[in-house]
Amino acid sequence: MPIAVVMQREVEAAIKALQPLPRAVMRLVELLESETAVLGEVEALLKAEPVLCGKVLQIANSAYYGLPRAVCSIYQALMLLGVHAVRGIVLGVAAASTLRGNRVVSSVERELWRHSVTVASNAQRIARACRWGQRVAEDAYIAGLLHDIGAMFLAARFSGVYHSLIRADEDRLSVERELFGYDHADIGAMIAEHWKLPERIVRVIGEHHAPCLPEGDIRLLTAAVMQADLWDAEKRGAPVSTSAYPRAELSELIRVDDSAAAEIRQSVDESVDTLCDLLLG
What we know:
By secondary structure, the chain is an all-alpha fold. It has 2 domains: 81 residues, no CATH class; 176 residues, Hypothetical protein af1432 (Orthogonal Bundle), CATH 1.10.3210. It is 72% helix and 0% strand. The mean pLDDT is 89.
């Protein structure tokens, strides 16, 4: 049997065996998808999970949010940040914890998380700068944070081969498909589906390296994540396939001038390490 087929089956089995997200997290996602959530319900859900509650408060009080006063309760966090921002924090904490388990994360995994936090923050700011609405902005943060969850999974589950692959100066997507039968975008979508995340988030994760932007309701969301991903890849000097991003479509859709883009990227760079440490700490 070809090695790629064996590896493909291993990947599929490992995803099926992946721990689900905590029940409180899934309930929170369901509540906010229905848009009928009462603030008290969200507060009660989080307060029933003391560890998660503590992490949310840590992040809400971090330099990343720069709130003018200390947040002392979940209710305050919900009022000051908004329920959808808190949802983003909760999903990030839960995803990082579920993938990490009881391990100490490797330097490769930490770098992937740093990249994802950067993409999340930039994608959210791009959506806001383009005035695409609060829902797109908050979804852009979540989709950006989880867009490389497939790469994080491969780095954790197949560390030996994947750590070498990710440091190589090659077209990573093609090599991933050769080795695993899927690329990290495919795998990320499979994980997001396994975790029962909203369909639009699943689709953006799966399509963030597509050669063209999708039509329909995820077009703007995908564009924000793609542009943020491209910005960070260029900054890090990572090898970028010419087909990995639809640059012409992005340029036409995202009207952010150079000075605004520089301001966005600088503000993100100043706070991303703090948030990454809190997610993985």
